Every structure is written in C-alpha cells, then in structure tokens.
From TrEMBL:
GO cellular component: anaphase-promoting complex
PROSITE patterns, sorted: TPR (PS50005)
Organism: Alexandrium catenella
Top-rank taxon: Eukaryota
The name this protein goes by in its record: Cdc23 domain-containing protein
Length: 244
C-alpha cells in the first residue's frame, strides 16, 4: 500500500518496522525523522529499542541515557533500558533507575518491571515475581511483564507457571518472539523436544537473522538424533554471525 507523502506516515512506517523486527530499516527511518525533530525523546527511545532488538546493548544504553537527559520524567520504554542494565549486570545503575522510577510514578507497569529486574539481578526471584504481578495489576496486557515473569518462574524451576506466563504473552502479542522462545526453552527443559522445536520455529519465523533461534533449533534436532537438520541449523547460525 502506498502511504501518503507526509511526515506522520513516516512515523507509522518506522513503528511498523520495529513491530515486525525490521530493525535496520526502522533505524534508518528514525534517523531521517530525527533531522526534522532533533529534540524528540520518542525518536530516541525508538532508536534505543532498535539497538536493543539487534543486541547492540552499548549503543542502546547510550541512546537511553541521552533520552533520559532530555526527558528525565519519561518512563515509557525504560523497562527495556532496565533489561540492558540487567544483562550487563550493572546493579548500581539498575538500583538508581528503580529509585528514580518510584519517584516519578511507582504506579506504572514500567516502574514495577524495573524494580522486578532489580530484585531478579539480586537473586530475589520471589520478590521479582511480586513486582511483575503488580505491573500486571496495572495493565493486564503489558506483554513485557508476562515474559519477565516467565523468566523468573524458570529460575524458580516452576515450569507450569512459566508456561502459563509465556502463553499469556503469546495470546496478547503473537509477534513478540521472546514469548515463543521462552516456551521453547521451557519445553526443552522438560525434554519435550518436539514441542520445543515447534515454538523455536515460531520464534525463528519472527527473527530469522538471530543466530540464537537457529542454535536452539539445532540443539533440539540433536536431541532427536536428526543430525542432518541440526547441521543445517548450525550452518545458518554461523551465517547469522554466531562464532561458537
């Protein structure tokens, strides 16, 4: 469909690219829009999200830091920022972010997810689940909270609860590969490799350039002694940038 030649159409197109995991295309569109809207914190947060989606955590963190300097009271997307601090194990920065989120507005799902990530990094998984549940009390359709809660239940070895959380996330947003991938990991943990493979395939369809999806599928094929398919998946993972 041909979109009208209007700047608002470019915003729509860029947001659609982010939703469909076409992150490089989205970055190009937002970079072009930023020339016309240099002070937009929304564009910065979307650029940071694109970098996060392609696992460029340093670039994403820099974009989020700049966004926070320009708009220190903005909470939207900061749950993604907290994921970066969690992955990089920056506990002091995550603690500071959690305190700031509480000061701004503790009754938001983003603030609750930030606090949940903080407790998860400390290894206090039950407290973490409590805050993700609070996030869902505020917004039952907040997909990141369901996914993060699924991760916590996995850490607690509560696979039925993890499956329920991931399934709910899938029902809310079938385009979020993290929920499909989480289901695959859960069923693989239960040694139900055929089911795990189904969910990994769904995740791979959404993220065909992500080597992790191909490696996960390869491991399932290996467990099922289907070595030819496993080898093809490993070869594809290598082409996607995996060096292991």
């Amino acid at each position: 469909m041909e979109l009208p030649r209007h700047w608002m159409a470019r915003f729509f197109e860029a947001a659609l690219c982010v939703e469909l995991q076409r992150n490089e295309e989205a970055r190009g569109l937002y970079a072009a829009l930023r020339r016309h809207f240099p002070g937009s914190s929304y564009i910065l947060s979307q650029l940071a999200t694109c970098c996060y989606n392609v696992r460029s955590f340093d670039a994403s963190q820099q974009a989020f830091d700049e966004m926070r300097r320009r708009d220190p009271y903005k909470l939207a997307s900061l749950d993604t920022y907290s994921n970066i601090l969690y992955v990089k194990e920056q506990s002091a920065a995550l603690s500071h972010l959690a305190r700031q989120a509480v000061k701004i507005d503790k009754y938001t799902p983003e603030a609750c997810c930030i606090i949940g990530n903080y407790y998860s990094l400390k290894g206090e998984h039950e407290k973490s689940v409590t805050y993700f549940q609070r996030a869902l009390c505020l917004n039952r359709n907040f997909t990141p909270a369901w996914i993060l809660m699924g991760h916590e239940f996995m850490e607690m070895k509560n696979t039925p609860a993890a499956i329920d959380a991931y399934r709910t996330a899938v029902n809310i947003n079938q385009r979020d590969y993290r929920a499909w991938y989480g289901l695959g990991q859960t069923y693989e943990l239960l040694s139900l490799h055929f089911y795990a493979l189904f969910y990994y395939r769904r995740a791979m369809a959404l993220r065909p350039e992500d080597a992790r999806m191909w490696c996960a599928m390869a491991q399932c094929y290996e467990s099922m002694e289907r070595r030819a398919e496993a080898l093809r998946c490993y070869e594809r993972a290598h082409r996607c940038g995996d060096r292991e």
